[in-house]
């Protein structure tokens, strides 16, 4: 299921589901078997995301939230601003390129404690990915200095999507 997934019929989605843009929660409007009772929460968790099956096709909730709010199926990725993939209230969702979405990731496993900073042979190294390529930003005496360099580059290249 990529962002190029075909959109379901919007009228059909609106007939089946209610979406609360303040909470990001979907509920069934109609009963659809024993697992989907009218008024019950729709969707199931899957790999940190939530998904809903409509007419045999599985859709990610954040795509449906965007669709039901704006009336258009997203053409880009949908980024969760707070990085929590199950938080689907509309103010937490924004369209993003693949690169922008990647800039908004949390810090992974990293011994330095800073995003974009690793231990090098001669100190602490700052790197950033730009246009799918790792870009060396410099070597520094402390991880804090390397992090400051990464942060400056991240703001320059990612803007509001930069996360430290």
Q: Terminal Cα separation, in Å?
A: 29 Å
Q: What is the makeup of the main sheet?
A: 3 strands, antiparallel
Strand tally: 10
Supply the number of helical segments. Answer: 4
Radius of gyration: 20 Å
Q: Which stretches are low in confidence, meaning pLDDT under 50 for 5 or more residues running?
A: none
Strand content: 25-35%
User: How are the strands ordered across the major sheet?
Assistant: 3-4-5
Q: Overall pLDDT, averaged?
A: 89
- The secondary structure category is alpha+beta
Helix content estimate: 10-25%
| Overall form | elongated
Give the topology string: H per helix, E per strand. HEEEEEHEEHEEEH
Explain what you see.
The chain has 164 residues and is of the alpha+beta class. 24% of the residues lie in helices and 30% in strands. It has four helices and ten strands; from the N terminus they run αβββββαββαβββα. The protein has helices at residues 10-16, 61-70, 98-103, 143-158, and strands at 17-20, 25-28, 44-46, 49-54, 57-60, 77-80, 93-96, 117-120, 123-130, 133-140. Strands 3-4-5 form a three-stranded antiparallel beta sheet. A hairpin with a 2-residue loop joins strand 9 and strand 10 (133-140). The chain starts with 9 loop residues before the first helix and ends in a 6-residue tail after the last helix.
Describe the structure using short key phrases.
single chain, 164 residues, alpha+beta, 3-stranded antiparallel sheet, 4 helices, elongated
């Amino acid at each position: 299921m990529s962002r190029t997934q075909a959109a379901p019929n919007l009228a059909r989605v609106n007939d089946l589901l209610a979406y609360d843009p303040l909470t990001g929660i979907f509920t069934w409007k109609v009963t659809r078997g024993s697992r989907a009772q009218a008024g019950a929460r729709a969707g199931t968790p899957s790999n940190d995301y939530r998904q809903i099956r409509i007419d045999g096709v599985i859709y990610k909730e954040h795509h449906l939230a965007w669709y039901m709010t704006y009336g258009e199926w997203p053409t880009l990725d949908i980024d969760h601003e707070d990085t929590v993939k199950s938080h689907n209230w509309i103010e937490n969702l924004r369209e993003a390129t693949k690169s922008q979405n990647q800039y908004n990731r949390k810090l992974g496993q990293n011994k330095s404690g800073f995003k974009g900073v690793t231990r090098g042979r001669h100190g602490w190294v700052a790197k950033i990915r730009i246009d799918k390529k790792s870009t060396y930003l410099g070597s520094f005496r402390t991880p804090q200095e390397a992090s400051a360099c990464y942060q400056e580059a991240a703001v320059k290249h990612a803007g509001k999507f930069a996360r430290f």
